[in-house]
Amino acid sequence: MAAAQANAADVVVVGAGFAGLTTARELVAKGRSVIVLEARDRVGGRVLVQPIGDGQVVDVGGQWTGPGQDRILALAKAVGVESFPTYGAESQHVEYRSGELVTYSGPMPDTDPALLTEFVGAIQRLDEMAAEITTESPWTAPHAREWDAQTFQSWMDANLTSDGSKAFMRTVIEAVYAVEPHDLSLLYMLFYARAGGGILNLMGTEGGAQQDRFDGGAQLVALRVAEELGERVRLSAPVRRISQDTNGVRVEGDGFSYQGQRAIVTVPPALAGRIEYRPAMPALRDQLTQRTPMGSVIKVNAVYDEPFWRAEGMSGRAVSDTGPVKFTFDNSPRGGAPGVLVGFIEGGDARRYSSATEAERRQAVLGCFERYFGPRAAKPREYIERDWSAEEYSRGGYGAVFPAGTLVSCGAALREPVDRIHWAGTETATAFIGYMDGAVRSGERAAAEVLALLN
Ligand SMILES: Cc1cc2nc3c(=O)[nH]c(=O)nc-3n(C[C@H](O)[C@H](O)[C@H](O)COP(=O)(O)OP(=O)(O)OC[C@H]3O[C@@H](n4cnc5c(N)ncnc54)[C@H](O)[C@@H]3O)c2cc1C
After folding, report:
1. Going by CA atoms, what residue is nearest to atom 10 of ligand 1?
2. 3-state SS, one letter per residue, for 46-82
3. Out of 32, 192, 203, 451, which residue is the most buried by the measure of CB atoms under 10 Å away?
4. Residue 146 sits in a domain of what CATH number?
């Protein structure tokens, strides 16, 4: 009988996002037997594409990659998925601020030099502070306690003087972390930024984290890896309970039970906390899972017959102080047809708009698009939205965030195995935490950790 049909394997992996698929791929490459249990009826987790006609798709989850994100790029290359640059490097972008629309070129709006000077100065100070942090153990940084005791909002209030730069910094935090500045600790903000090559890198398009997209969408990479793994991946198999003793682990759900020597749980901490463990998790690990909520994001795509903004010299990028959509990009396929604008509703706006009707959201979203790109933007041929907080097996995005006090008190439990149970997932990464690249890295690290013990 093929190993794929067995109900026992060396390692049972929970979750078939990038972390779970990578860890399984690495283990299989080293000759180990693996079973991957995925709750959804598809692989990819927080990456997902939706068809938009003529064989084209649009990303409704994670999509961009950029310099330094070498592990996701290597994985994509290994399975034959190419990337291409985000449209608009040479075009004009839109800034909507205090009720006025202006255009600009280059990496950041420069219409208010005083605001820009204060903002860039603040970013430099934050980068200097972040330089103290080692991403393996941010909780040991010299100022860890002081920085973890305050929210990023407190830091902004104490260090930024103008309302304009505070508003712009808030928009940046919403865009990069999908939460409000009061939702995350200063230490976590710095740790995440450092792991991602600095806040300017995370904000940036050309030369930054939004530089490139995958042909066929980011989920294609996951689908190809899953194809390689074949029947080792079991879909529609939500794990409810993991038991362990000195002999091994038992991973169970409704109507199934698998045994292994080790388990690797690759779901974000908040979801890992919903699984029952026997014996129960140690106190610190459980406290961690109680204190690490997911960010809030609704991603919207509007599809047009053509990217009409391009003909007007526009990139499709907007940054705005007025929501619910405060950031947009051109999300058309590589060939430029059809035209697609993507926008994000984040943080508090996402939580508010989660309970609106789809018609209300659509009206508010298209109102923003029209404000940034004119009346044609109000009439897409298709409107696509995905509220990641409403997804049973994600419960938010882009990733988990650490509120004040959590990283110092519970951070040490993030990657620490509990006997035969190991942890992966982008939240456990030490580079590009929260990103697809971090997920891949975490899968590689967890596989190496387990291989050393199996050997
Ligand atoms: C809207 C949005 C936009 C984003 N944009 C970007 C971007 O542009 N670039 C970027 O790099 N990153 C982006 N991200 C983040 C990126 O998608 C994630 O960091 C990455 O995909 C996480 O991978 P993972 O394997 O760690 O976790 P996940 O993808 O969450 O995988 C976990 C898997 O476990 C499954 N699961 C959950 N509970 C159970 C259970 N009990 N039993 C079995 N299976 C379970 C889930 O269904 C899921 O498939 C974005 C995320 C979102 C939501």
Report:
1. 435
2. CCCEEECCCCCEEECCCCCECCCCHHHHHHHHHCCCC
3. 192
4. 1.10.405.10
